[in-house]
Design a protein that fits this description.
The chain is of the alpha/beta class. It has one domain (2-147): 3-Layer(aba) Sandwich (Rossmann fold). Helices cover 29% and strands 20% of the residues. It has helices at residues 17-22, 63-74, 99-105, 130-147; strands spanning 2-8, 27-30, 50-56, 84-89, 117-121. A five-stranded mixed beta sheet has the order 2-1-3-4-5, sandwiched between helices.
Length: 148
């Protein structure tokens, strides 16, 4: 399990290939998932506009733990309304949980309709699925900016 918090984003003129594709320059904190450092996660939440949470979809025994941590993070005051992108990593492995099944196991359908979320299957080693998740997040943030 890994927590990534996107702290801010701003328009970008496209000098960096990764930001040119999404027209944002995110500030990202990869704070890892080791149990002993989870108590420090809250220091990175202030000013965040999105939450990216990565789950090892092949480690079915730890999905309940991931759910507990995800819900704890999402209930944090600075993150209570931000869009949530969950990467279901390791989709290349034969026992990996499908994104829809992972969404159900994480109880995401119970979130209020005002809280956008998306589970994207991915394989981080090859990059499969990563851009699709960021496409969703970029469109969601843009839509929210236009409304509010």
């Amino acid at each position: 399990m890994r927590l990534v918090v996107s702290s801010s984003s701003a328009a970008d003129c496209g000098d960096n290939p990764s930001t040119a594709l999404f027209r944002v320059a995110p500030q990202v904190w990869d704070v890892g998932g080791q149990k002993k450092i989870r108590q420090l996660w809250h220091h990175y939440f202030s000013g965040s506009r999105a939450l990216i949470f990565i789950v090892d979809s092949n480690d079915r025994e730890r999905v309940a733990e991931a759910k507990e941590e995800l819900w704890s993070v999402m209930s944090s005051e600075p993150l209570k309304d931000v869009p949530v992108l969950i990467y279901a990593n390791k989709q290349d492995l034969p026992k990996a949980m499908a994104p829809g099944k992972l969404a159900a196991e994480l109880d995401l359908p119970s979130l209020p309709a005002s809280r956008p979320w998306h589970v994207q299957g991915c394989q981080a080693v090859t990059g499969d699925g990563l851009y699709e998740g960021l496409d969703w997040l970029s469109a969601t943030l843009k839509s929210r900016k236009m409304r509010g």
